[in-house]
Amino acid sequence: MKDKLGIVVGIGIVAAVLTTLYFFVINAGNLELNEILPIGIVLILVGAAAYILWDRIKNVKKGLPAQDERLKITNYKACYYGFIASIWSAVFAPLLSGFFFDYELPGNYVTAIVVLCGGLAFMISYLYLAWKGK
Amino acid sequence: MKTRMKELRARYDLTQEDLAKKIGVRRETILFIEKGKYNPSLKLAHDIAIALKTTIDELFLFEDDER
User: Fold this and answer.
1) Torsion angle of alpha carbons B28, B32, B38, B43, nearest 10°?
2) For A63, how many CA atoms within 13 A lie in the half-sphere containing its CB?
3) How many CB contacts within 8 angstroms connect chain A with chain B?
4) Nearest by CB: B44 against A59, A69, A130
5) Could you tell me which residue, A30 or B11, shows the higher pLDDT?
6) ipTM above 0.90 for this complex
7) pTM for this one?
8) CA-CA distance, A126 to A104, in Å (whole number)?
């Protein structure tokens, strides 16, 4: 029951993110590179989340658990790497932007970078650790 | 860490999926334990040992330098 609820919530979140992106893109007009790049990262994250959901659905259909102790440990490790990436991106994004482009990043850009870097680090490390087995 | 899981599974004619269903884990977890890529918790090791009608110390073999 808990597994199925998690899958339904996950599908709902993926659908909500895709709907939000769709309305953003059709109302944004001409998109610039600094807008296309975050959308690309969000699409990669949604794709990875959809893959994880599909994998869980496949297991539940076979009568196996969606998540077991190995995947819980993998999840904790990936959360840790995502957290570290978020903190360091909050430190380095404004520094590097000032150093290389002489441009002071606005607060909302820094927030977006922190969220996307954390999400990307989480997804990459989760998929890698789940595939590698450690 | 080496394991005799594969040998004992074959003895009881169990696939990785059958064993996974018996102890309530994913098939990949059984695969990674058999390959020595994942060290199970004490509870999971105990469950596997019971499912394969053996004991933990007969199921998992540690090298001297791992002790």
Assistant:
1) 60
2) 7
3) 44
4) A69
5) B11
6) no
7) 0.84
8) 33
- pLDDT tens column, B35-67: 988 999 999 999 999 999 999 999 998 776 665
Contact B26 A64 (CB under 8 A): yes
CATH number of B2-58: 1.10.260.40
User: Closest approach of chain B CAs to the CA of A64, in angstroms?
Assistant: 6
DSSP A69-109: HHHHHHHHHHHHHHHHHHHHHHHHHHHHHHHHH--PPPHHH
**Quick one: B54 exposed, middle or buried, by C-beta within 10 A (0-12, 13-18, 19+)?**
middle
Mean pLDDT for back-to-back runs of 10 residues, chain A (134 residues): 85 93 87 83 92 92 90 95 96 90 86 93 94 79
Q: Report whether B3 contacts B36 (CB < 8 A).
A: yes
- All structural domains of chain B with their residue ranges: 2-58
The answer to whether the beta carbons of residues A27 and A90 sit under 8 Å apart is no
Chain A residue with Cα closest to B28 = A133
